[in-house]
């Protein structure tokens, strides 16, 4: 299934090329109970067709009604849904939630289409971008994004939105811990891929929402299976799978690389990777080993929780001493 943001941008580009004005909406901030995360997109054309989601229903209906009534003719605006006194909002969110939405009116011109094509390339994993929107004029700029951090950075006069491929979790080999990681990650909205060539390991395994590839994870990685929004984790205790995956992963732009094992096991693995794999100290420094946050985890589910928590920490640009 395509990343929903990619579907939104591609459809918006089609409408713009066809000469239609569009409104591009981005969830900026959520407070309390809100159905969609910051960065979620929705696009509407002047004919009332739409794609994407902001809330799961009520906000979309209100917004479409307002567009049909001729609202949102300014270049850019921020609308608050939920509790508050914003006259442009006529709905309340469940459980008292609040949703701030950036609304951009985009005319059908070459500059808009070039901007949307840049967003499309980022959502395909070809690059990561920071999209900056001036809240007064609606001016848009794109910058290379070389950091991990919050999806939305909001200031008084502008917002910056991180644009990249769907967050991917690549599981190098199957184990009970990998099973728990996959289940957590699917719930968190990751695209999850499991690579394992061992028929005996995968016999009877059921992983809903996970793409299973019966091949060595190192081969999948070497063939371009990682982009900058990929986390690679090896959780099998089998050096033939784990070590080879690490050797290939450090040569990619994956934002998180980790392998399971005790401190002693990790030290032995690093020595093998130096001696056999020829990895440099800089490459070894990219590998989180032992993997995950130190939560005193013992069971597969507890270890998986520690792993996903550490991945989320890195993705959000939070240092360990800030926890």
Please tell me about this protein's structure.
This protein has helices spanning 4-17, 58-68, 110-123, 176-187, 199-202, 217-225, 239-249, 263-275, 281-285, 300-315, and strands at residues 22-31, 41-45, 50-52, 76-82, 98-106, 129-134, 140-144, 152-154, 158-163, 168-172, 191-195, 210-213, 230-234, 256-259, 287-288. The chain has 323 residues and is α/β, with parallel strands linked by helices. The strands form three sheets. A six-stranded parallel β-sheet has the order 12-11-10-13-14-15, with helices on both faces. Strands 3-2-1-5-4 form a five-stranded antiparallel β-sheet, sandwiched between helices. Strand 2 (41-45) and strand 3 form a beta hairpin. Helix 4 (176-187) crosses helix 10 (300-315). The chain starts with a helix and ends in an 8-residue tail after the last helix. This is XdhC family protein.
